[in-house]
Design goal:
51% helix, Ferritin, 824 residues, nine-stranded mixed beta sheet
Length: 824
């Protein structure tokens, strides 16, 4: 059975727990990723002739497993496993950066042996078989590496997470620089002068869909090693990653020592790097990076990196760089450089990003897109995407809809008020070449103006009603159903009471017609996509599939007012990450027969379908059995509720049930029975005369119990209800076991066509349909709330309020006088 992506990620992340305590995330990532690397190359290339990576005899992951429990495990991993692999593949300085015999980080003696043995055991899991995890076009292991890098960056803290550029930002950069399968070939070159762990380079390579040439330089030794491993794990073993200071000592040079140029250049350099000039002779720079523009400030390296990028581009080359917003508007030498870059036509566009996206800083940043191909341009395209994001822990994160919208708008140069604009050089020149985004795009939400006249005289201002014009365009008759003209010009009255607003909206013919239109659009997409999805089988490329489904969904919802096509797209991509992705990967590995399989859930002590949840099987095939469970379950809940009421009424320290209530507030059946027995014995001992009547005839137990105390009565009642609960629990358990057995057998009996129907239509499409219905409810609720807000705001004019206040004031003063209070 193929391991699911989500399971793979969680298994790998669990390995990090084995190392926590002795070091922080920025250090233990080196150990975990080296272990991942060795496991991967062992599974993929051990004993494979002419493999791109050599795994020497005695140095595979299997050989590492044999070291578990040995006192010399740390030293043996270094010398017997890592060193031979590094030597055989020219990876010295890459996979040997982590010392597995470091007692300061891993502990000493038995502590180290146990820690490393446990770490190996996690990767020893048979489900982590990387020889079978790569579906064509979908690098699962590479994605897992990226997942780990993100989490390491999150935990590494402000000063140590800069080795990683958020994948969402990397994807935008890769998509806006213009690389594509059509314009890329093996000779196409991509360069990142501050490559970190290499994720940005790989995102560009992914967009090309071809084997292109990747080059990167990174100053930090350990991070450069991560980048080399990352390239191998992503099937780019020939990528050149060099270690060194890019500004002081660029290592990608031509034979004549001039700076090498590339087709595409991308970068996320350290923001406002203060030591950029160390080792750099900016005045006499042999690489001519500054001679046409000027020298950046000595204590701020933003433009030094930007000019290095410009110089590293071929004529006709394209690039993108992440910069702090300051580069757009700072003065002095930076203003001179900025003006010259603009006049040369190298800046194609600017994309303003949300704050707090990056690891290591919370300040907002922007992407500057460079283009040496069309240098006769007379404008710059600017996007302000600062409002589109979601919270993710203590950081912000771009959603799929944000990424797609940015890329669509930029690549098609679409102007949207408050979001994007084509800014001519003439306007930029008027602003003295200041590129601060708010100068050209106003993304501020319109102020909700309070109308003084409406507060004084009542009614709703027409400008507030007209501001809802996007709704009136879709529901043209609704406006007149809700509002009528006021006696005063520019004002209107609400025709109905506030509690009828929602009802009026939902019953409006235009509202109903629009909902039907949206449902029809979804139905058209659903029918087309259902056919596609039912025809997928082993070997399907999941990433290609979701891309096609997503693009088609956007195309279907294009042009619809009110509902945002990118919101609909986000529902699909969210569900993809949550569920569909794992399902599709299962089908890609094993075909639709995966729908016949069940998996045991150790936590729930129950099984679940690999593709199909039990719930869907029961709804489709066993509705009668499910209904037979509903009545006893309902009765059981009633009895439980009765117990809770008794416990609440008679519990507590002084309550009648105090003797049977534990310190944690729980009442056990055994404690109740024990207390009942105690009270009955006390009754017989303390009141013997009650045991016989006047004639000396002994009373029966039944007669005695009729005279029981209040406590005994409550306990008896409590015990009776507990017995009923036990009875119904047994009944329900038996029914569940019978149903569970039927469900288990049904999974095995399902035919492929049945599996397809359940998974595609009842699982996937039903979820997406419900999401869109929820979006429609959200849109209508927003309109309802706004109309109610306006009505409440101006419902009671100020003179009426003053009159009410005066009347209440008179009543208060009258009461105070009667109580004897006096005042001047």
């Amino acid at each position: 059975m193929a391991i699911k992506k989500s399971e793979l990620y969680s298994s790998l992340w669990a390995s990090c727990d084995e190392l926590r305590g002795g070091m922080d995330a920025s250090q233990y990532k080196d150990y975990v990723l080296v272990m991942l690397f060795i496991k991967y190359i062992s599974d993929k290339y051990a004993d494979v002739p002419f493999a791109p990576i050599t795994v020497p005899k005695g140095s595979s992951f299997t050989d590492m497993v044999a070291l578990k429990g040995k006192p010399t495990i740390g030293d043996d991993i270094n010398k017997k496993i890592i060193a031979p692999i590094a030597k055989a593949n020219n990876l010295t300085g890459t996979i040997d950066v982590a010392d597995f015999n470091n007692s300061d980080k891993l502990g000493s003696g038995k502590d180290m042996v146990q820690k490393l043995s446990n770490l190996i055991a996690i990767f020893e899991n048979p489900e982590l078989d990387f020889s079978k995890n790569k579906i064509e076009g979908d690098d699962i292991l590479g994605d897992a590496y990226e997942y780990l890098m993100k989490h390491f960056a999150t935990e590494s803290g402000k000063s140590k997470g800069q080795f990683y550029t958020p994948a969402e930002v990397s994807r935008i950069m890769a998509k806006v620089i213009g690389i594509s399968p059509e314009n890329s070939k093996s000779e196409t070159t991509v360069y990142d002068p501050t490559c970190g762990s290499g994720s940005l380079l790989l995102k560009v390579a992914y967009e090309s869909e071809k084997s292109i040439s990747l080059y990167g330089q990174e100053m930090d030794v350990a991070t450069a090693a991560l980048a080399r491993m990352n390239m191998i794990l992503h099937n780019y073993p020939t990528a050149e990653i060099k270690q060194g200071n890019t500004l002081a000592n660029p290592l990608f040079l031509n034979d004549n020592s001039s700076l090498r140029t590339f087709d595409y250049v991308v970068a996320n350099p350290p923001f406002s790097y203060k030591s950029w000039s160390n080792g750099v002779d900016a005045v006499n720079d042999q690489h001519r990076r500054f001679q046409d523009y000027g020298i950046p400030p000595k204590k701020n390296g933003d433009y030094a990196f930007l000019l290095h990028l410009v110089r590293s581009l071929k004529d006709g080359g394209k690039g993108a760089i992440i910069m702090p917003h300051g580069v757009l508007f700072r003065g002095s030498s930076e203003a001179v450089i900025r003006e010259k870059l603009i006049r040369k036509g190298y800046i194609k566009g600017i994309i303003g990003l949300p704050p707090n996206l990056f690891y290591g800083t919370g300040i907002p940043a922007c992407i500057i897109i460079l283009d040496k191909q069309n240098i006769n341009r007379k404008s710059i395209f600017i996007i302000d995407a600062s409002k589109g994001f979601m919270k993710d822990g203590n950081k912000n994160r771009l959603r799929e809809q944000d990424i797609h919208k940015i890329v669509d708008i930029f690549n098609n140069q679409i102007e949207i008020e408050g979001y994007s604009a084509i800014v001519p050089f003439s306007k930029i020149e008027e602003n003295e070449f200041n590129l601060n985004i708010p100068r050209y795009i106003d993304n501020q939400k319109a102020e909700d103006i309070q109308d003084i006249e409406a507060h004084l005289l009542g009614d709703i201002p027409n400008f507030d009603i007209d501001a809802l014009n996007t709704y009136w365009e879709v529901y043209p008759t609704l406006k007149n159903e809700l509002f009528s003209r006021s006696k005063r010009k520019n004002y209107s009255k609400l025709k109905i009471s506030e509690d009828k607003i929602r009802e009026k909206i939902f019953s409006n013919p235009d509202f109903i017609a629009y909902n039907k239109k949206v449902n029809k659009v979804f139905s058209n997409w659903k029918n087309k996509s259902t056919e596609i999805l039912k025809n997928i089988d082993k070997g399907i490329r999941p990433k290609k599939l979701i891309h096609e489904l997503g693009e088609d969904l956007l195309a279907h919802f294009k042009g619809l007012n009110l509902i945002d096509k990118y919101d609909v797209y986000q529902y699909l991509l969210t569900y993809w990450v949550e569920t569909m992705q794992d399902d599709i990967y299962d089908i890609a590995e094993d075909g639709w027969k995966a729908g016949n399989e069940i998996e045991w859930d150790e936590k729930k002590k129950d099984f679940e379908g690999r593709l199909i949840p039990q719930k869907l099987i029961i709804e489709r095939y066993f509705p009668k059995e499910q209904k037979a469970l509903e009545e006893p379950e309902s009765t059981l809940e009633e009895y439980k509720s009765q117990l809770e009421e008794i416990a609440e009424e008679y519990g507590g320290e002084e309550g009648l049930l105090s003797e049977v209530t534990s310190d944690s507030g729980k009442i056990s059946k055994s404690s109740v029975l024990k207390r009942i027995k105690e009270l009955e014995e006390e009754k017989r001992e303390e009141y013997p005369l009650l045991a016989a009547d006047a004639s000396g005839k002994k009373k029966s137990d039944e007669e005695l119990m009729q005279e029981e105390t209040d406590e005994l009565s409550i306990l008896k009642k409590y015990s009776e209800i507990q017995d009923k609960i036990d009875l119904f629990n047994k009944k329900i358990k038996k029914l569940n076991e019978e149903l569970s057995e039927k469900v288990r057998k049904k999974y095995q009996e399902l035919k492929i066509e049945e599996i397809k129907d359940i998974v595609v239509e009842e699982k996937w499409m039903t979820r997406l349909y419900n999401d869109i219905q929820e979006e429609m409810r959200r849109i209508s609720q927003k309109l309802t709330q706004r109309i109610r807000e306006l009505s409440e705001r101006y419902e009671t004019p100020l003179p009426v309020l003053n009159k009410e206040v005066n009347e209440l004031e008179k009543k208060v003063f009258s009461h105070l006088r009667k109580m004897g209070f006096k005042w001047n």
